[in-house]
Automatic annotation (TrEMBL):
Domain of life where this protein originates: Bacteria
Organism expressing this protein natively: Streptomyces levis
Gene3D superfamilies xref list: STAS domain
Span of domain STAS: 10-119
Protein name in the entry: Anti-sigma factor antagonist
Family recorded in the similarity comment: Belongs to the anti-sigma-factor antagonist family.
NCBIfam families: ant_ant_sig (TIGR00377)
Pfam families, per database record: STAS
Length: 125
């Protein structure tokens, strides 16, 4: 039986899956949650050539504070020549991602398996 690691915070769980660091956001991601998540997110996205998956599957609510976290994580990973994938199937969050244009920068995958099956993309210089 596989044991899940304890969450770093009540809003973030980090685990390794198929060579990727999966950052699983949980519950309501608002200003307070973002402040709680940010230091952990920065630590995980600050590694050279990191392979990161931002998993929004367990979220219940996601506001502009969450969008800032995603954008920041993406920039930090790509600046260090890593790769970043997004998992999201929540209809309202998908709509916000589309409206803001973030879905063009981080195309959402419907499941973690779908994201991890993607071929590795060469990161930007």
């Amino acid at each position: 039986m596989r044991q899940e690691p304890a969450p770093l915070t009540r809003h973030l769980r980090v685990r390794q899956e198929r060579g990727h660091t999966v950052l699983e956001f949980r519950g309501e991601i608002d200003l307070a949650a973002a402040a709680e998540i940010a230091p952990h997110l920065d630590r995980e996205t600050g590694r050279p050539a990191a392979r990161v998956v931002l998993d929004l599957s367990p979220i219940e609510f996601f506001d502009c504070s969450g969008l800032r976290l995603l954008y920041r994580a993406r920039g930090r990973v790509l600046d260090r020549h890593g790769s970043v994938l997004l998992v999201c199937s929540h209809p309202l969050t998908l709509r916000v991602l589309r409206i803001t244009g973030l879905s063009r920068l981080l195309p959402p995958h419907p499941t973690l398996d779908a994201a991890l099956e993607q071929p590795q993309v060469t990161p930007r210089p």
